[in-house]
Amino acid sequence: MKILLIGATGKLGTAVHKTLAGRGHEIVTVGRSGGDLRLDIGDPAQVTEVYDRAAERIGTLDAVVSAAGDTPFKPVAEMTAEDYAAGFRGKVLSQIELVRQGTARISARGSFTLITGVLARDPIPTGSAAAMANGAVESFVRAAAIDIAPQRVNAVSPTVVTESLPDYGAFFPGIASVGLDQVAAAYVRSVEGGQTGQVYELA
């Protein structure tokens, strides 16, 4: 398959890239500071450019995979209106835009795989913006699956990643972690499988 991978230079994106490439897929990588294309999907105009330049490189895409999304972490009393707006733009609107523009740019039976996370269902202190964003992405996936068929859309929703425990483990006390290999396998399931409207929870 010909795959567009967003967030390819992060820890998760690197693992997903390695796994998908190892299965023989042709991949164009996108990142703000690295990858084949250096663009920011938070800007709808740059999403258009991503699709244009990816098509120039490898032709019609079969799948779009996102492993990127930013949200601020602060207690609610310290959050500003702009903090919540930034979280919504950074993780929700950016991924919705990939699907909105992408339905006309990928193959007739192509797929989208978005990223959410455990905080949609198991919140932590300072995580209200992330919980909001993750919940919104998951609701969008379930609704968009109806509209875009026979194209497909799913989301991968991991808990804290084992390989990131030294940096983030203290924020998730008592919550079991999941290995990057397991998260990457969920992306494979979404890209190569036949399901749509699914949220693959990894806890």
Question: Which properties best describe this structure?
Answer:
203 residues; 6 helices; Rossmann fold; 7 strands; seven-stranded parallel sheet; alpha/beta; NAD(P)-bd_dom_sf
How would you portray this structure in words?
This protein has 203 residues and is an alpha/beta fold. The chain has one domain: NAD(P)-binding Rossmann-like Domain (Rossmann fold, 3-Layer(aba) Sandwich). The chain has helices at 11-22, 44-58, 81-102, 128-148, 165-168, 180-192; strands spanning 2-6, 26-31, 37-38, 61-66, 106-115, 152-158, 199-202. The protein has a seven-stranded parallel sheet with strand order 3-2-1-4-5-6-7, with helices on both faces. Helix 3 (81-102) links the parallel strand 4 (61-66) and strand 5 (106-115). Helix 1 packs across helix 6 (180-192), helix 2 (44-58) packs parallel to helix 3 (81-102) and helix 3 runs parallel beside helix 4 (128-148). It is globular. It starts with a strand and ends with a strand. The model has no long low-confidence stretch (mean pLDDT 96).
